[in-house]
Design brief:
mainly beta; seven-stranded mixed sheet; four-stranded antiparallel sheet; 11 strands
């Protein structure tokens, strides 16, 4: 059974870089046709898809965030990571890692609350 586990800070100061790692167990991030994604939900708002990385390491980013974010992977640890730079209070959200296949999300991490505040 594949599981996703996020790890990252709960509090980040404005202008800093937010970093998250998602550890995947029970399956490989290099398995064909799976995409590994980051999604967030600001308080009182809907889900926002941020970006994704596929089994070959190719990335796709949301146009609204691409100038500030990057997604990378460490295949030796079976992890993929998110970095979001120059954060502001508007980046306060619950952040999720997830697995996508055929343009649908079929697995979610547990979600981690991040607050951007000085």
């Amino acid at each position: 059974q594949v599981q996703l586990q996020e790890s990252g800070p709960g509090l980040v100061k404005p202008a800093q870089t937010l970093s998250f790692t998602c550890t995947v167990s029970g399956g490989s991030i290099t398995t064909n046709y799976y995409w590994w994604s980051w999604i967030r939900q600001p308080p009182g708002k809907g889900l926002e898809w941020m970006g994704t990385l596929n089994w070959e390491g190719r990335t796709v980013y949301s146009s609204s965030l691409k100038s500030r974010m990057s997604i990378s992977r460490d295949t030796s640890k079976n992890q993929f990571s998110l970095q979001l730079s120059s954060v502001s209070p508007e980046d306060t959200a619950v952040y999720y890692c997830a697995r996508e296949v055929d343009y649908s999300i079929d697995l979610w991490g547990q979600g981690t609350q991040v607050t951007v505040s000085s």
